[in-house]
């Protein structure tokens, strides 16, 4: 009996997100016709799904463009953000010099930067990738610094007392302990990178999901607009899941304190 109850609980936890999504989508599907709303105002999930299937080649073509911008911007954030975080962690003077600039850059609305990036970088890939980089850069830096600083100092002293140099301490102790925080920052950053790329496409683009959504708006095609939003959301979920799978392979699992 206890084994069945445990299996039922495990099944519920595993599929709770799908069940909640099914309930919400089902309520949406039922309530929209009952409320008398037209498809122009709020299309039903079935209408959106049919439109996605019908326009799948078009959505896939524009999704590839947005995916490239997101991955490129996020990749730049990792390549620049992680070394910068290491410099901040190991140099107090550098930390005091660079932190105010990072905070100032983060507080600037990225929508305000988009027209300037188009002006300086042109109308191609560069402004969208740069915007995805700028919006995803800060959480990568902060999460990496916090992860490195969270290690118990007594553990570091113990490893050093056993003869480990700084390189060995970093790769054997500091980095493994910081990986959960680092990947937490990666998950936030990749979600923000999707937002940054789409914002860039809103300002200046001839391809991409943001551009496709603007076209749907100009044609008052609400169903296509929702189909594009669902595709953007799906893109973010896929990228988040990829990082989650990588994290599961390279980090040790810690039980949450509950």
Give a quick rundown of the structure:
It contains 11 helices and no strands. It is mostly helical and 258 residues long. It has one domain (42-250): MetI-like (MetI-like fold), CATH 1.10.3720.10.
Structure description:
Helices cover 84% and strands 0% of the residues. It is mostly helical and 258 residues long. The protein has one domain (42-250): MetI-like (MetI-like fold, Orthogonal Bundle), CATH 1.10.3720.10. Helix 4 (56-90) crosses helix 10, helix 6 packs across helix 9 (166-203) and helix 9 (166-203) packs parallel to helix 10. The protein is globular and about 70 Å long. The chain starts with a helix and ends in an 8-residue tail after the last helix. The mean pLDDT is 84.
**Into which percent range does the helicity of residues fall?**
over 70%
Please count the helical segments: 11
What gyration radius follows from the Cα positions, in whole Å? 23 Å
What is the second-level CATH architecture?
Orthogonal Bundle
The helix/strand class is: mainly alpha
* Main sheet overview: none
Q: Which descriptors would you attach to this protein?
A:
single chain, 258 residues, mainly alpha, MetI-like fold, 11 helices, 0% strand, globular
Secondary-structure map with pairings?
Layout: H1 2-14, H2 16-35, H3 45-54, H4 56-90, H5 92-107, H6 110-121, H7 125-149, H8 153-161, H9 166-203, H10 209-218, H11 222-250
Helix pairs in contact: 3-11, 4-5, 4-7, 4-9, 4-10, 6-7, 6-9, 7-9, 8-9, 9-10, 9-11, 10-11
